[in-house]
Amino acid sequence: MANHRIDRVGMEIKREVNEILQKKVRDPRVQDVTITDVQMLGDLSAAKVYYTIHSTLASDNQKAQIGLEKATGTIKRELGKNLTMYKIPDLTFVKDESIEYGNKIDQMLRNLNKD
What we know:
Elements: H1 2-23, E1 33-40, E2 46-53, H2 58-82, E3 90-95, H3 98-114
Parallel strand pairs: 2-3
Antiparallel strand pairs: 1-2
Pfam families: RBFA
Protein name: Ribosome-binding factor A
Subcellular location: Cytoplasm
């Protein structure tokens, strides 16, 4: 039963952080960032927020990471206003590599069929 609550809180934080990044954060480094997943600790004290960016340039990825780290305070403050939680979890932003990995596997399968 507790696992269901953790998943619900993670989904709610994902939705809220996406909205906050679109409407409240004015940093141009995070304009193309999309939150893909949120993994919560069991006691809801910390959350890993997975994000993706539309650009494939390494410099843009690094700028997005720095922008998200700078915006963490604003995001937590807005989460505190929007969510009814006793304590807002600490946020850690991690780049989601699953999309690039999936594209790589897909390309390998296409190349295999050509041979």
